[in-house]
Amino acid sequence: MNPFYENLAHFIHGAAFMFFILASIQLYPLRHRSNMMRLLFCSMIFLAFLEFKDMGFLIKGVWYNPYITSITMSTDMLYVPLMALFFFEVISPGWVTLRRIIGMSMPSVLFIVAFIICPSSVIIVPKTRAYSIAALK
Q: What residues in the chain have per-residue pLDDT under 70?
């Protein structure tokens, strides 16, 4: 990769990380206002974690390791259920409970744990296909 574009990508990751940290700080006093604000606050913290995790690509050789890249990309997919829950809360206030949060995020977590224990394309490819099929519906 061209060093300029690589440096630009790292700069943008750092800027996004700072944005999510500042958004979390601003949403902190509002988190008890409604369930939707609590979900928004939690999603900002989770996005800050995801951007912080991506800063690990600053280490030489990490990007070229397919095992680590697959784990980090799978971890990014954990945000999909959280965002879906946010939209469910917008449509039907009070629908999102801790049980539903765990239920919607558990398949992704189990795929990641299974891939960490037994790294195989048999585990990672069906997960990608499941997300692709869900996006088509």
A: 1, 121-137
Q: Do residues 45 and 21 make contact, with C-beta atoms less than 8 angstroms apart?
A: no
The pair of three-digit structure tokens given for residue 56, joined into one six-digit string: 């690990």
Predicted structure pTM score: 0.78
CA 109 distance to own-chain centroid: 11
In the chain, where does DSSP find H-type helix? 3-27, 35-54, 66-76, 79-91, 98-117, 121-136
Round to whole Å and give the CA distance between 2 and 5: 5
d(CA 86, CA 74): 20
- Judge contact between 77 and 131, C-beta under 8 A: yes
Nearest-angstrom CA–CA distance, 30 and 99: 23
Residue 124's φ and ψ, nearest 5 degrees, are: -80, -35
Residue 113 backbone phi and psi in degrees, to 5? -65, -40
C-alpha–C-alpha distance, residues 59 and 83, integer Å: 29
- Say which amino acid occupies 86: F
